[in-house]
């Protein structure tokens, strides 16, 4: 079983990955936390946007190759390669922070890669409002995230909704993070697991 967890910055992807990995005794793949460009990017987005996205894409390709070697294990992945392209890179291109030439190069690499890798059996999408995202970002206190503004988060939320509703073709389990707090309420995790098992049993 290969399950990927998608969602905006601060939606709780890493926390849910940790919870489900422990529950299933699974293997986890986390988003790169020490990306060498991320601090520079939040300080000067136009200067570092393309470098950041290429770096994340390379990290995700590396992860995927390792996943392919892992055989029949249960796998949970914190953020997907699809989000790198359809949410973050596309948003930065629309904002004028990645040039059209650079974006075309990025998408060429993305398309080549995604034609060679498996799609998740289930994608869990953590939907969250801006107040929920801001509260969780403040709570975790990462220094490089202090400059993220609400308009940027809102643009990403719009991208996520468009991607889930119009682009992504696989099975999707949507969790409303404003309502379903899987940290405070363990029954939410039980329900997520039941839904996952129902969806993957349809193979």
**From N to C, what is the helix and strand string?**
EHEHHEHHEHHEH
Strand order of the largest sheet: 2-3-1-4-5
Shape: globular
Radius of gyration: 17 Å
Helical content class? 55-70%
Instruction: Report the count of strand segments.
Output: 5
CATH architecture: 3-Layer(aba) Sandwich
Determine the CATH topology: Rossmann fold
The overall pLDDT, averaged over residues, is: 91
Terminal residue distance = 10 Å
Strand content: 5-15%
Low-confidence stretches: none
Estimate nothing, just give the exact number of structural domains: 1
Number of helices: 8
User: Please, what is the oligomeric state?
Assistant: single chain
Protein described:
The protein is α/β, with parallel strands linked by helices and about 200 residues long. The chain has a single domain, classed as P-loop containing nucleotide triphosphate hydrolases (Rossmann fold). Helices cover about 55% and strands about 10% of the residues. It contains eight helices and five strands. The protein has helices at about 15-25, 40-45, 45-70, 80-95, 100-115, 130-140, 150-165, 185-200, and strands spanning about 1-5, 25-30, 75-80, 120-125, 170-175. A five-stranded parallel β-sheet has the order 2-3-1-4-5. The longest helix has 25 residues, at about 45-70. It is globular, with a radius of gyration of 17 Å. The mean pLDDT is about 90.
């Amino acid at each position: 079983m290969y399950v990927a967890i998608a969602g905006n910055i601060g939606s709780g992807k890493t926390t849910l990955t940790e919870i489900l990995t422990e529950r299933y005794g699974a293997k986890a793949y986390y988003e790169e936390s020490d990306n060498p460009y991320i601090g520079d990017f939040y300080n000067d987005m136009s200067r570092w946007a393309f470098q950041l996205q290429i770096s994340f894409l390379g990290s995700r390709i590396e992860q995927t190759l390792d996943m392919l070697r892992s055989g029949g294990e249960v796998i949970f992945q914190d953020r997907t390669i699809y989000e790198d392209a359809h949410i973050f890179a596309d948003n930065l291109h629309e904002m004028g922070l990645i040039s059209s030439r650079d974006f075309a190069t990025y998408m060429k690499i993305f398309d080549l890669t995604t034609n060679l890798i498996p799609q998740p059996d289930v994608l869990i999408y953590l939907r969250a409002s801006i107040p929920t995202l801001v509260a969780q970002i403040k709570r975790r206190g990462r220094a490089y995230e202090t400059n993220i503004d609400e308009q940027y988060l809102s643009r990403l939320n719009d991208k996520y909704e468009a991607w889930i509703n119009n682009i992504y073709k696989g099975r999707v389990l949507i969790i409303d993070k404003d309502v379903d707090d899987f940290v405070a309420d363990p029954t939410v995790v039980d329900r997520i697991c039941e839904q996952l098992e129902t969806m993957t049993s349809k193979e």
